[in-house]
Specification:
405 residues, three-stranded antiparallel β-sheet, nine-stranded mixed β-sheet, globular, alpha/beta
């Protein structure tokens, strides 16, 4: 019923958004005399803000068609090199560029599409042959394709690294830090030929007992049954995945928005003021951010519930209780992967120390194969996007890849 009620509301808001957009265009049209005096400009701007906030959104495009290498423009081609039911492996091929480090960026399966990491991909393109996990919206996967749980996630990572080939590097942003670490342990124990040369973990919940945030506390304050009863819904009949049990993306978005509701309200107020003042460039910047931020997708119930239990409630990895396909996961098996742990000083999703724990767990890894970097005055989103990522954090990642090539 929850999902059906949301779909009804979304349909109504879509119509209201279209009407508001029409009204904004009418009031802001240069041919309309009311656009120049009275409340025309204010009303038009208010309608535009509402139209943007309530518009339905699908999967965004990466739109990365070129990059710059050594001062010259290089054409970039987006290719799908492996397809699986719940995700695909994308490659950004740079025309005429060979012999660069191969980098797999593992995007979060946490309610947003992989395009949330567009800035991450864009910044690494000049120096790396970039691949990314492009997870599929669970509501679009038919029930006939079966389940997708934590073990499957780890297997997908191993399969994608195998597809890329030996000597690749891996970068995990936030949520996938734990399954990527597990994959590294499993591949190291199995002496897999495609074990990554480096593993960079950015703002990941490796050990959420360290500096717990509001997200961590929510997971520990409520029993597992609460999440199953209140966070899981059934996909409506209007989608290919009808009948699948999922954690809806709109619930995840509502949770993130409520955590920083004041900041989001201020952002929209600033956008309104920019529109009234005719500062379209500043308003467009805010619109682009929320176009990506509000584009959400569903994840399977089994993966979401297992992540809550294993990562946030049981702390299975740091306690030595993590299993993969019934076999114990041993961080001590990692002996030759360069691990770089990156944290943001102001991260309100993964607190300081949670990602750094990955270095402590790798008991048989030499100190020179470990590195920790704390980005000062950087929040969770700024770790992988924005000017601080481009100018301060990405060079550290590039240096680490080069040192462990």
């Amino acid at each position: 019923m929850l999902y059906d009620a949301y779909e009804m509301q979304r349909s109504m808001l879509a119509g209201a958004s279209a009407l508001a957009n029409f009204g904004a265009g009418l009031l802001q049209n240069p041919a309309n005399p009311f656009a120049y005096f009275g409340g025309g400009a204010i009303m038009g701007s208010a309608l535009e803000v509402f139209a943007h906030a309530s518009a339905p959104r699908g999967k965004p495009a990466f739109g990365l068609t070129k990059t710059e290498i050594d001062g010259r423009e290089v054409v970039v081609h987006e290719e799908i090199v492996a397809r699986k039911p719940f995700g695909q492996l994308k490659r950004f091929r740079r025309e005429g560029v060979e012999d660069s480090p191969k980098l797999l960026i593992v995007a979060p399966m946490s309610g947003h599409y992989a395009t949330l990491l567009r800035g991450t991909v864009q910044r690494m393109l000049p120096t790396c042959e970039v691949y990314i996990t492009d997870w599929r919206d669970a509501k679009l996967v038919p029930l006939s394709e079966g389940r997708f749980d934590f073990d499957d996630y780890v297997d997908y990572i191993i399969d994608f690294l195998t597809e890329i080939g030996p000597n690749a590097h891996m970068l995990a942003v936030c949520q996938p830090s734990v399954p990527c670490y597990v994959a590294a342990c499993v591949m190291s124990a199995d002496k897999h030929p495609c074990t990554p040369r480096t593993l960079t973990l950015m703002g990941g919940p490796v050990d959420t007992r360290e500096a717990p945030t509001a997200v961590n506390l929510l997971a520990t304050e409520r029993p597992h049954a609460w999440f199953e009863q209140n966070a899981i819904a059934t996909v409506p009949m209007t989608y290919p995945g009808a009948g699948r049990r999922v954690y809806p993306g709109f619930l995840q978005l509502a949770g993130f928005m409520s955590m920083n509701l004041g900041n989001h309200m201020i952002s929209h107020w600033e956008m309104f003021k920019h529109l009234v003042q005719g500062d379209d460039e500043s308003a467009e910047a805010t619109k682009r951010f929320y176009d990506e931020y509000r584009a959400v997708c569903d994840m399977t119930a089994e993966f979401y519930l297992q992540t809550v239990e294993l990562v946030f409630q049981r702390h299975a990895l740091p306690k030595g209780e993590m299993l993969h396909r019934g076999k114990p996961v041993d961080p001590g098996a990692i002996t030759d992967i360069g691990i770089l742990a990156i944290e943001g000083e102001r991260d309100d999703i993964s607190g300081l120390g949670q990602t750094r724990a990955s270095l402590t767990l790798a008991t048989n890894l030499r100190d020179e194969k470990k590195r920790y970097y704390m980005a000062e005055q950087v929040g969770h989103y700024g770790i992988f996007n924005g000017s601080k990522w481009r100018n301060r954090i990405a060079p550290v990642v590039e240096e680490w890849i080069k040192a462990n090539a």
